[in-house]
Amino acid sequence: MARRRQPTARQMRLGAELQKLREAAGLKGREAAAALGTDSARLSQIESGVVGMSEDTVRRLAANYVCTDEELTEALVAMATDRTRGWWEKYQGLLPVSFLDIAELEHHATYRFDIEFLHVPGLFQTEAYARGVFSYRVPELPDNDLALRVSHRMERKAVITGPSPVPYEAVIHEAALRIRVGDRVTARAQLTSILELSEADHITVRVIPFDLDDFGGAWSTMTYAGGVVPKLDTALRDTAHGTAFIDSDAQLAAFRTLFRKVEAVSLEPAGSRDFIHRLAKEL
């Protein structure tokens, strides 16, 4: 098992899921390590994602932890043995690690939900809109760093525009649609792009208008990525220190409920497209 300098979020998630299985089995680290024929320090490295694992190691751990969920075991084996070198790896050392982790998460996701209140969702952003978002950073980014962030964001869109797109549903507040990140031309092009993308069968767009009564959910911005099995779902939320990857069962259940709650009060897809079309005509 080779030691890694810096595990990815996906590698750390694998270790965290194995730790959850161990704790559910009521085993302490030293007990689990002994059953595996190693020591506590090595098991700690496995659970933190610092070292890689073979298929045999994952299966032995799952058996030792009496994991009867075969689908979860197979998903964990796939995570451990996956050797995908994704397009995002060319940004290694050029962009913050979280940019690469998000792209890798999206690549492996089986579906995607977004709720946005102030910005158009990243997967919908045009190049000009994305440049406007990143240009507002303080301190300002050097031109090369700005170009890298915009390029990375455009490549991420492949998960909904590429040859094998995933189901995607975005709930967007009217504020995000009206705020002019760029000029009038940029705003019109952005709305037109959303309308064009929403015509795809796998993409659903819903709008929350300003005049919706009794809506107190403006804090509920989130990204939710479906895993191969529900236990491997991931929610993302922006914090003051970067992007938080959330994977606890209780919080994931709460985020799924929150999304459905916000979805239920938003305009239907057809009405949402009409709404966006009217906004575009105003520009």
How would you sum up this structure, described in words?
The protein contains 13 helices and six strands. The chain has 283 residues and is an alpha/beta fold. The chain has a six-stranded mixed β-sheet, with helices on both faces. α2 packs across α3, α4 runs antiparallel to α5 and α11 runs antiparallel to α13. The model has no long low-confidence stretch (mean pLDDT 95).
Layout: helices, strands, pairs:
Elements: H1 9-24, H2 29-36, H3 40-47, H4 55-64, H5 70-81, H6 97-108, E1 111-116, H7 127-135, H8 143-156, H9 158-161, E2 168-173, H10 174-178, H11 184-197, E3 203-208, E4 222-226, E5 234-239, E6 242-246, H12 249-265, H13 269-282
Parallel strand pairs: 1-2, 2-3
Antiparallel strand pairs: 1-4, 4-5, 5-6
Helix pairs in contact: 2-3, 4-5, 7-8, 11-13
